[in-house]
Amino acid sequence: MSAEDILNEIKQYVIKNSPGNALITDVQFEGPEVVIYAKNPEIFSNSFVKELARIFRKRIAIRPDPSVLMEPEIAKDKILKIVPEDAEITNCIFDANTGEVIIESKKPGLVIGKDGSTLEEIKKAIKWAPKPVRTPPISSETIKAIRATMYRERTDVKEILRRIGRRIHRDVKLREDCWIRMSFLGGAREVGRTCNYLQTPESRILIDCGINVAIDGDKAFPHFDAPEFSIEEIDAVVITHAHLDHCGFVPGLFRYGYDGPVYCSKPTRDLMTLLQKDYLDIAEKEGKVMPYSSKDIKKCVKHTIPIDYGVTTDIAPAIKLTMHNAGHILGSAIAHCHIGDGLYNVAYTGDIKFEASRLLEPAVCQFPRLETIIIESTYGGYDDVLPDRAETEKEFLNVVAETIKRKGKVIIPVFGIGRAQELMLVLEEGYNQGIFNAPVYLDGMIWEATAIHTAYPEYLSKNIRNRIFHEGDNPFLSEVFRKVKNTNNRRNIIDSNEPCIILTTSGMLSGGPSVEYFKSLAEDEKNAIVFVGYQAEGTLGRKIQRGWKEIPIMNRNGKSKAVKVNLSVHTLEGFSGHSDRKQLIKYLRKLKPMPERILTVHGEASKCVDLASTAYKLFKKETRAPMNLDAIRMK
Amino acid sequence: MSAEDILNEIKQYVIKNSPGNALITDVQFEGPEVVIYAKNPEIFSNSFVKELARIFRKRIAIRPDPSVLMEPEIAKDKILKIVPEDAEITNCIFDANTGEVIIESKKPGLVIGKDGSTLEEIKKAIKWAPKPVRTPPISSETIKAIRATMYRERTDVKEILRRIGRRIHRDVKLREDCWIRMSFLGGAREVGRTCNYLQTPESRILIDCGINVAIDGDKAFPHFDAPEFSIEEIDAVVITHAHLDHCGFVPGLFRYGYDGPVYCSKPTRDLMTLLQKDYLDIAEKEGKVMPYSSKDIKKCVKHTIPIDYGVTTDIAPAIKLTMHNAGHILGSAIAHCHIGDGLYNVAYTGDIKFEASRLLEPAVCQFPRLETIIIESTYGGYDDVLPDRAETEKEFLNVVAETIKRKGKVIIPVFGIGRAQELMLVLEEGYNQGIFNAPVYLDGMIWEATAIHTAYPEYLSKNIRNRIFHEGDNPFLSEVFRKVKNTNNRRNIIDSNEPCIILTTSGMLSGGPSVEYFKSLAEDEKNAIVFVGYQAEGTLGRKIQRGWKEIPIMNRNGKSKAVKVNLSVHTLEGFSGHSDRKQLIKYLRKLKPMPERILTVHGEASKCVDLASTAYKLFKKETRAPMNLDAIRMK
Ligand SMILES: [Zn+2]
Ligand SMILES: [Zn+2]
Ligand SMILES: [Zn+2]
Ligand SMILES: [Zn+2]
Ligand SMILES: [Zn+2]
């Protein structure tokens, strides 16, 4: 049945089974959803929409016909008039594509009103569907820019969605002798440039499309020279999380002609955009040739279709995608693909943390069905057992407390997303408990990344959510945190005698403010530097970690200057966002159902092989550590 | 360097280093060879040509400029005048593409003359290069037809060769991060539709391209729906041997747009053409839709570049092919590919017999280098040990002798190529030793296949070659063999009381004369039927083998008639052209050098898996039984 036929059938059904005064004006595929436009959309009950979804096995959305929507400017005035001033509305964001208006306010309860009465009133008055949310406590430039793009280019976005919708629901005859296979275009037996290419006779899906930021040349990008790869044939791109080794090349796909959807969680969309822009900025400064420009990042944003954890979405003929929490960074997901009506299920973990962290819940390990799991192996080697988490926190706070006590400064070089926020939560608690008394400065990308975290409290751990929603106590807003606003501000922090903690990018001192802090603070033995993440060979971070006593560093004027290293150097391995070997094995053990095949990726060759071999011994299932350019038949 | 540049360089070198009176007229790529045309080609010494090949690392051929070649008709008269009549010249075959004339005679020694003096005289007189050969004792319609095609379409063939030559020597920049992989498009964990697809960044090679004649529909053909397969990109097709499960689809490639070379041995070219035509004839009679027509078979012949065992040939940028005897059927080969200057070597056995048979030498097991072996697994299962060969022959001759003694007839249904000729050699010896005294009738395709065998004595076992060349004693010409010329002839054989042996196709009684013989001879208990090959489920052969006492057989008029089975039924498994389990393991053990990876294919799933698992236990190398549509990275 063609897309047109399906739409007609749904339209006929809805017209026949809904009250006549709903006044249906259009039925369209928009991305993976079927959208029914009506002049009186409020007439449809939730149960009717559910029934519709059940019958047609599609995601259904009902939206007001654009003609009935009040002009945004006038609508905003109307909202401000209806809602009591005490609600402190800070922003109304009109989404022309969904017919929704997000109403940000300090007290969203007052926007809802008793039993939703205020909402009802707003809806009747302006026809836009009001979505009350709490005003994000820190405003994010990234989110603002994305929203602005989506609004400004709403006509284009709608057209993109409709084109994608028709492609997803295109008429294909499913073959009897269906086959399913996965090619590994990058990230197999290595870390960096992760790119998995799922193929069936009818569809091609790219799951993650990263770059290796640590190297130059062709090997930094996935194997697009694989003979089966054809950019014109890709139905969908799925992104598990925002780290560049998983999403760094996505704008490049658009540069080279891709024009389809990108599926990921909303936080991933925002963080990914932030990181891609940052990557571009740095590369430009270094004069590197980049595979894309900021224009392509914008194109990527416009083609992104955010999906929530647990919602099953058609992404290609006979392929359904469900994203599940991966516990690794904000919005990180395990991608579960259900292929060919119940035929085959494959889950790819992306990067996972199978342990509750302060920031996030542990990775999901239960699926409705599962035949193949593709699991990361960063710490899959025989010796990769990480120190206990609680111990590590204690040790960390000890170093901080001692340094502060002797009036020193603590430099903590971190990657902006994930570890930074996790450490903020540890520091916030330590400060509240009186373990130290000094400000924590946030420099580099950390502030903006934190802003994005505060915009998606529903993605954070239960504990943090509880504090934010029920106790009105947002740890990220603690007085202990201070934003470093500019170079002057940074200079003052360095020069003052005040003991303090500095969380700053980049995590390996390969550039960014962390190098500035180190240069100025290294010679004073009162100070300390704490490494909480991996330091790659050849980086400044690695040299310091190894105990070099004097390090030549290039000055702004291009002259090399020797910096004496007198500050105390600490390395703490227990804060990783990745599962260690024990957790990876525990994850496989807890998987429900147990899959028939286990593939290990995303780790040095020996670690992928170790994990595969252990998994084979433990579970007696088919296990393999594929190589890049291997294509594995799954069914 | 472009193809043009290479040619120019060679031309300059030759002009500079050869006597001026050679009169070079042209230098061209023709297929994998560099051909130097000269008005006086005889001036070049063999050592000069070898030196040239060494320097430029190309196969070099020196040929007379077409302008100096005498008209074939006149040249033939000249040859007949020069060579003494006693030589009994039967045919002169002028090959316009090579400037050679094959002189077939009963006494080739007289064509050569003392110290080659007669040859020299001929050469001087006609300028064609004379190649004296013994007149094949049985003339082959297939070979005649192929020669006629090649002569008639010589202009077209030359153009094809030049196009292929330029493609092989095209200008490609070999990448530093070279990768090599093999996709299995058919014949993995199954028998039938064998198709291996070798890929490097620069090249695509198809090694074998078979069909499964036992089934209908898409599953009879290789997985051309594999995403990496692209018919336009194929550089070369390599065929290991003439069985349809290895070459049955090749004309189909030309039907669907392939226009490149097919590399195989000369006997394989001829036998393959015979079998493809036969397959087409049968399919047409059965009203099947075929993926090609006889026009495509002719196209395939014109694109075939025969290569001898042991000769290394450039078949694509950075891919060199060497064929080695596989011991399976006449002309069968192991394909050894040497990829990227010394970088990687993979050998694919095709079907192998690792035991001397009467007809052929055992498979070659030594290679200059070897990293991966892809080995057949037809009898790779734990129980697949075949009876001893000498025992089997004895048993076979016993059955024959006893049946003849009781004045019965022996039906031996065989596949036309390979087993038939092997049994002929056994029967010829038995007859000579007086074990039985009765004629052996050859029906169906066997006679023609035997004719092709006699045309290529150099491909037969040392023993047979000795008999033919040194003792003038060709076993295929024994008086015991009689050709069944037509239906009348067949009727007479059936009706006469004379005891006899009938070797006849098809081997599984799935059609052809074997069914006729069986219907008429089954009810007489004096007769016998001997199965020497595999009988597939559902075939008439299988039913007889299983001991059915009454079998309904369709008559020509479409009515079913019950045939009583009274003749004695025998099955002999020891004549297989495949290595049994012991021989396969012995082959791996004897391999030189031992490869680092062993892949098992061409067998039921359990047999491929059994063999892989045994090989792993024995050799501790990476072993796998890939699936169809798996792509395995080799380097
Ligand atoms: Zn990650
Ligand atoms: Zn990663
Ligand atoms: Zn677009
Ligand atoms: Zn064969
Ligand atoms: Zn075969």
From TrEMBL, chains A, B:
K Homology domain location: 95-162
Top enzyme category: hydrolase
Domain Beta-Casp span(s) in chain numbering: 420-544
Annotated positions binding Zn(2+) 1: 241, 243, 328, 351
Protein name: Transcription termination factor FttA
Organism: Methanothermococcus okinawensis (strain DSM 14208 / JCM 11175 / IH1)
Family as reported in the entry's similarity comment: Belongs to the metallo-beta-lactamase superfamily. RNA-metabolizing metallo-beta-lactamase-like family. FttA subfamily.
Record keywords: DNA-binding, Endonuclease, Exonuclease, Hydrolase, Metal-binding, Nuclease, RNA-binding, Transcription, Transcription regulation, Transcription termination, Zinc
